[in-house]
Design brief:
single chain; alpha/beta; Rossmann fold; about 45% helix
């Protein structure tokens, strides 16, 4: 049996997909040490992993504001701070208990690659977002959605490059360039969506395992939800856990769907106190937190911000999508959904109550969209889920051990 280390940031959309993989590793008898932000320690520990928490600064960042070149240029520095904190929390523990493989979220690649090289262990990058190779660049696709694409000379990016060089030097790796570290393609890459959802999916080689969203563990852990007796068709509306601070959007949704045949479930998270939306019409309920997958079990349509975790959750449950993206990342996801015919996209700048209500009605009534969503749901099931991910991890560890022995 092996010891696997996982490094992740504190975002729910980054941690939740990995839980099924961790549980599968533990079920097979492997040891797992998982490093993540303090707020998710208990959630991860429930899988049976040993968890090391750190004080994540990312939780204080309003990702709903990361919509232009200036804000986007600051994100690499924020993720590098996460890496520095992960290294400080993890290295003293793992230096005495070396892992056989280090898996890491793509936002904290620096931490994973630095320690994997230092300890000569294999690395695996995890993609809870669309992946990249020489045929498709997720970064370029995001830049294409922005009127102001910014510049590599932005002060925040210059500060990031300088600090990353310093972090490399601190760990005895000043012989590596920033470009080498950033551009490295690891021998194992775990992608949390099926290959057909990936742009240029056929061009990715066998270093990439497209095992799907791996949501079965999260689904089992959720409390059940059922619509009230006599409710109309259910529509779940959520802007996720990181870009939800848009109270005016949820107030518009209340006004839009009041008195309609739809039974609306609003997951407002931190956007607004549900009490501030009262009195709600009988066909609308609002929650700071509600189990999305349990609601999607009964939903006819899912309205979301086009986060990939939310998108995969809807498709995992066979629910067509209406997407209202705001950030460059989410616009790329929404474009892919539209390209594959899995739902409708309403541009935020063109959003009106009439357009939102029409999009929900159209997508619910379209049999072609329903068929395409069901096909994608089947491909998610066939992708292999956590078992496929752990099979790939075990093969990578075995290959590394074989090379070391020979």
């Amino acid at each position: 049996m092996s010891h696997i280390a996982f490094f992740n940031n504190s975002g729910y959309g980054h941690v939740i997909p990995t839980l099924g993989v961790i549980a599968e590793l533990v079920d097979r008898g492997h040891r797992v040490t998982y490093v993540t932000g303090d707020r998710l320690v208990d959630t991860v520990a429930a899988t049976g992993a040993r968890v090391i928490g750190y004080d994540s600064q990312l939780v204080h960042v309003d990702l709903s504001e990361v919509v232009n070149a200036d804000a986007t240029s600051r994100m690499p520095g924020i993720y590098l701070q996460e890496t520095v904190d992960i290294l400080a929390a993890a290295e003293p523990v793992l230096a005495e208990d070396r892992p056989d493989l280090i898996a890491f979220d793509m936002t904290v690649y620096h931490a994973g690659r630095i320690l994997a090289r230092k300890w000569d262990v294999p690395a695996a990058e995890c993609f809870p977002c669309i992946a990249s190779n020489k045929h498709f660049s997720f970064l370029d696709a995001m830049l294409d959605t922005m009127a102001d694409k910014g510049s590599w000379g932005h002060p925040a990016l210059r500060a990031f490059f300088k600090r990353l060089n310093g972090v490399l030097a601190d760990h005895g790796q000043s012989d590596r360039t920033v470009e080498e570290v950033m551009g490295q393609v690891d021998d194992l890459n775990l992608v949390f969506h099926p290959r057909r959802f990936q742009p240029a999916g056929g061009s990715f080689d066998d270093r990439f395992t497209f095992m799907g969203p791996c949501l079965e563990y999260a689904e089992r852990a959720e409390a059940p939800w059922r619509p009230p007796d006599g409710a109309g068709p259910v529509v779940l509306i959520s802007l996720g856990t990181s870009v939800n601070r848009q109270p005016e959007f949820f107030r518009m949704c209340v006004d839009t769907f009041a008195g309609t045949p739809w039974h609306v479930v609003l997951a407002v998270h931190n956007a607004v106190d549900p009490a501030d939306l009262a009195p709600l019409p009988p066909n609308i309920e609002a929650h700071s937190w509600i189990p999305h997958l349990s609601v999607l079990e009964h939903a006819a349509v899912f309205v979301s911000h086009a986060g990939l975790g939310s998108t995969m959750g809807g498709l995992h449950k066979g629910v067509p999508l209406v997407l209202v993206p705001s950030s460059p990342e989410h616009k790329v996801n929404a474009h892919r959904v539209a390209e594959l015919g899995l739902g409708r996209v309403v541009r935020q700048e063109a959003l009106t109550p009439q357009r939102l209500l029409a999009a929900v009605g159209d997508v619910a009534a379209d049999p072609l969209t329903a068929n395409r969503v069901k096909r994608m749901q089947g491909e998610i099931r066939q992708a292999g889920g956590p078992a496929a991910a752990v099979d790939a991890i075990e093969r990578r560890i075995a290959a590394h051990r074989h090379v070391a022995v020979s």
